[in-house]
Amino acid sequence: MWGRRRRPADAERRLAAAMEAAAEAHRRLAAPADRVDGLYRAIQGACGHGDGMPRSSTREALADVPGTLESCRHMLASYAEIRGEWTHAEVSDPDAIDRAAHLFASWAEQTDEAAAHLEELLAALTEVRANLDELRIALPPVRARAHAAVTAARNDLLWARSPVPGRFALEARLNALGDRLRELDAGRVELVEDGDDVTEWYREVETGAAEVRDALSRPLSFGDR
Predict the structure, then answer these.
(1) I need a surface site. Which of 166, 178, 214, 225 has the fewest CB within 10 A?
(2) Are 75 and 110 in contact (CB under 8 A)?
(3) Residue 96 in contact with residue 10, Cβ under 8 Å?
């Protein structure tokens, strides 16, 4: 590794220790970065298909990922350059070896904050992925019922007796429910608080459509005739 020339043992030991510390720091940086990148791609692929998965809030949760990964890639590339240079070096000067040890040690120290941030980001993305997986199971039947309820309400209104008391208000209500349904399907919703629940918002649409249908099914009173 260092050629056949003899070098002062102390300097070489310092360099070996610094290189080992840098190699360990590299492992702590590279593995979480790969996992974050994989989760990032998986979460991106889970939203934006018009099936009600919350794209807007998910995009916000991912906002910090590209910059963090880019910074890590630069750090890893820097390590590769340092490692490549000193692996093939033919240096016997103890001062030069000390400078190399300083380079490796400095690089390792610089990774501490980035590695800690990656671990935090990994934990956050793991939670986001788990929540999306749960939602993907729970959402389809609720979403299907909401769509069926709005369609049924539209048909009831279309074929309702005329005149229907409050017909225009019911049409406006149904149009608003349709708009909300499209917004939910597109994922254009913000999960602001821990209690926010996309399935509950679909249930609200279903309930609203049921209320429209109930209003249409009420018998005419004498004053409405």
Answers:
(1) 225
(2) yes
(3) no
Could you tell me how far CA 134 lies from the centroid of its own chain? 14
CA–CA distances in Å: residue 215 to residues 80, 125, 132, 152, 171: 71, 45, 36, 13, 11
* Cα angle for residues 108, 109, 110 (degrees, 5° grid): 90
- Does residue 187 come out as left (phi exceeding 0), alpha (psi in the -120 to 50 range) or beta? left
Q: How far apart are CA 173 and CA 76, in angstroms?
A: 56
What distance lies between CA 114 and its chain's CA centroid?
Answer: 19
Contact present, 44 and 62 (Cβ < 8 Å)? yes
Q: What are phi and psi of 52, to 5 degrees?
A: 95, -5
pLDDT, tens only, 51-90: 999 998 888 889 999 999 999 999 999 999 988 877 655 5
Q: Where are the alpha helices (DSSP H) in 88-166?
A: 94-158
Rounded to an integer, what distance in angstroms lies between the CA atom of residue 37 and that of residue 69? 7
CA 40 to chain CA mean position, Å: 6
Instruction: Report helix, strand and coil shares of the chain as percent, to nearest 5.
Output: 80, 0, 20
Nearest to 31 by CA among 19, 39, 21, 42: 39
Q: What secondary structure letter does DSSP report for 223? A: G
Give the pTM: 0.79
